[in-house]
Amino acid sequence: MAFTSIIAHRIQRLQPTQSAQLQLRTNVFDSNGKLDELGYELKVNFIRKGGKFYGRFSAETVEFPFSSWLKECREERLSFESFTHKAMQHFANALEKTETILDACVFFLIEKIEAGELLYVFVVEHTNAIYLDGELAIGDSRFLNSSQFGLAAKINMQDWNAGESVTYVAILRERGEKDLSDAFTDFIGFSDKHDVKSDTVEFLKIVDNFTESLDEGTAKLTRNKVVDYCLEQNKAGKSVVIKDLSNSLSEELKTYEPDHFSRYVASTQDHIKAEFIPDTSQVRSYARISGRNDSLSMSFDADCLGNNIHYDAASDSLIIKNLPPALKARLLKHLSSQ
């Protein structure tokens, strides 16, 4: 990992009737350990946050010019600093169309990885805190809240340039702040939200069909390995590559040829998706069945259904066998005390 360029600007709008004020930094920061640490914290927290949207840039570059300026920057017709200055002015204009107030720093970071370059944009606010100094006296401090930000974007510039991906922009929107989120979305020029949930559901159906012809033990191991792989990729901020998953299944289970699973996937799809972004809620629910109401909370491995756990739809009831010892002990203790 290497952050090659980091710059930050400040945007303030303290009253809905006021214009947004910008404080623009002239040059990128000099590289140092603290700066790299901040960049890493922002990146990791972005990856960990759920509820992100995936899509691409709007084709309406006159109304949403962020991508045009970024292209000029990559072609070295516009400096990175100038690109961010233009982008910040556009953000201020988008913010002024709402009644939203904001006082935050906007970080632009370019990360160079083996596969290409990524651009991150984070809207980060300061947080007040109280601390004890060396004399155990109370003091006030302010720090950048690198974990609680609600607005951010990641652009995979390699995928953008290739022109084949429809999910090269990932965006995080502030929950409960629609106007602010819309202003940020317009600022980035995000468009064509992609339905990663449908992609994941379709993929998991293929996994089910693939494991139907396997013996029970191998089928269960395969499903578990698929779930683990998808969750690990999501945790690392990466998409699921079918070919890599197929190789991983071959290495870990020693049952398939390296391209066995990928060939099966290709045979089931008219339009082969070589990779997709996993929806973690769908992946987790595939591995575990769970639910709750005001008085009951339950979760169990999906493989238990039909084995130790049976559902009777007519009576809307579950029959559970082979209870966990701790649960059984609690039940017996509770019954004996009544």
TrEMBL record:
Record Pfam families: NA37
Presence of the UniProt keyword Oxidoreductase in the record: no
Keyword Cytoplasm: yes
The entry's keywords: Cytoplasm
Record's subcellular location: Cytoplasm, Nucleoid
InterPro entries: Nucleoid_associated_NdpA
Domain of life per record: Bacteria
Family: Belongs to the YejK family.
PANTHER family: NUCLEOID-ASSOCIATED PROTEIN YEJK, PTHR38772
Protein name as annotated: Nucleoid-associated protein
